[in-house]
Design brief:
By secondary structure, this protein is mainly β. The strands form five sheets. Strands 5, 6, 7, 8 and 9 form a five-stranded antiparallel sheet that branches. Strands 10, 11, 12, 13 and 14 form a five-stranded antiparallel sheet that branches. The radius of gyration is 17 Å and the shape is globular. The protein starts with a strand and ends in a 13-residue tail after the last strand. The relative contact order is 0.10.
């Protein structure tokens, strides 16, 4: 298990072994980051061989992506080119393609109004990252902060926090993206949508609404989304959500 830490005490990635229901720190696993890095997301590839971390800050750039090979006992070895310069400002949400751990998708959130995009990288065996031809792929929305991919690896959804829309892309076999369209939320006022997950069956997309303290739910049909009529659903206790997992 790796976590991304940020705050006044400094930023880093730190690893743990998950043993018998407990988290045990991995000695020497902490990777220090600049205070301005503002790590946004850290995740493993589906085969567990690569770990990626996005540096969201500083707000005006430059922006970077960290990439590591994962050792047998969880220790990290930086890729030869890590960190790499992100293609656009504010790399934020990221996801490996469920059907191909060598394809990485990263949203770019801080380019400005109407300039959101998603970058696609090929991940080499040494964890080096190379942007594919045509990347980044525009979504013509503002602040795509999180991405989610259907379990079959066919479609990617980008959550546009400032536009309160969900951009829908078809993913070609080589990883290139074709924008299908952007779906608005039922009632976008004050939502501030953030993290998103597609359930394992591929039937529903769940989105946390940090501003409205709710969760929005969309039915998924290929590359089309239809928000449930009763969505969004309030969070019990009125707490503001940030991330979620669907099992």
């Amino acid at each position: 298990v790796y976590v991304a830490n940020t705050g006044a005490g400094g930023s880093d990635y730190t690893g743990f072994w998950f043993l018998a229901g407990h988290l045990v720190p991995i000695p020497g696993s902490t990777v220090a980051l600049p205070d301005s890095a503002l790590p946004g997301e850290v995740l493993f590839s589906g085969d567990g061989r690569t770990l990626i971390g996005t540096r969201v800050g500083p707000s005006a750039g430059p922006s970077f992506i960290d990439s590591f090979r994962v050792g047998l006992f969880g220790q990290l070895t930086p890729a030869p080119d890590s960190p790499i310069a992100a293609q656009r400002i504010g790399p934020f949400g990221s996801a490996f393609r469920p059907t191909n751990p060598r394809q990485l998708f990263v949203s770019n959130a801080h380019d400005g109004a109407g300039l959101g995009s998603v970058s696609v990288y090929h991940v080499a065996r040494d964890a080096s990252l190379t942007a594919i031809n045509g990347s980044p792929f525009a979504d013509n929305q503002t602040a795509p902060c999180w991405v989610a991919i259907t379990p079959d690896g066919e479609y990617l959804f980008a959550i546009n926090t400032a536009s309160s829309t969900v951009s829908r892309y078809w993913i070609a076999p080589g990883g290139s993206l074709t924008l299908v369209g952007s779906t608005p939320f039922n009632d976008p006022s004050g939502l501030r949508p953030f993290d998103a997950q597609v359930d394992p069956s591929g039937r529903d997309l769940y989105v946390v609404d940090a501003g409205a303290k709710a969760v929005s739910i969309f039915a998924v049909a290929g590359g089309n989304l239809t928000e449930l009529g009763s969505s969004p659903f309030a969070i019990p206790g009125g707490v503001a959500p940030f991330g979620l997992i669907v099992n």
